[in-house]
Amino acid sequence: MRRENWNSDFFIKIFPFLISAVVAIIDCKINFIYAGSKGIDTLFSNLINVFAIIVGVLIALFGVLPSIHSSLIMERIREYDAESDLFYFCKETLLLNFLSLCFTILLGFIHSNFDLNNYNYIFNIWLFIVCSTLISSFKTILILLKISFWSSKKKQEIEKLDESESQKLKNKYVDKEKQQ
User: HSE of 103 in the Cβ direction (CA atoms, 13 Å)?
Assistant: First the structure.
C-alpha cells in the first residue's frame, strides 16, 4: 500500500512536466509558437499579468497561513496529513510562476530588440516552462479548493453521555412534552 501511494504521489508531482514536455515536443515538430507568431507580444503581456496575479495570491496565502494555525482549515489539513503536500504544491507553483514571469519578461524584451527567427528552440523551452506553470497552478488551485470544501464540512462528533447527564436531559425534555 505504501508503494502505491508513492507511485501516485510521484505521478501527481511529475504530471505537469510530462504534459509540458509533450506540448513542447509537438511544438518542435509543428512550430505553432515561434518568433514570428502573430500576437506574441500580446501573449507575453497577458502571461505576465497572469503569473503576477498567481504569485501575489500565493504570497498572500503564505502570509495568512500562520494566522490561521489553529483554525478548522488547518485542523483538516493536519487530519488528512496534507501539510507537506500542500507546502510542496504551493512552493512548486510559486517557483514555477517566478521562473515563468522572469523568462517571459526576458523573452519579450529580447524578442522586441532582436530577431529570434533562427532561435525557435528558445520558444520551445519557454513553452515548456509556461505549460508546466499553468498546469501546476491549476493543480494547486484544485487542491486549495478541495481544502476549502474540507473546512466547510462540519466535523461530527458524538459524545457519549454518562447516565446522570442522560437522565437530566431526558427529564428536561420529557417534562416539557408532558407540560404541553
Answer: 17
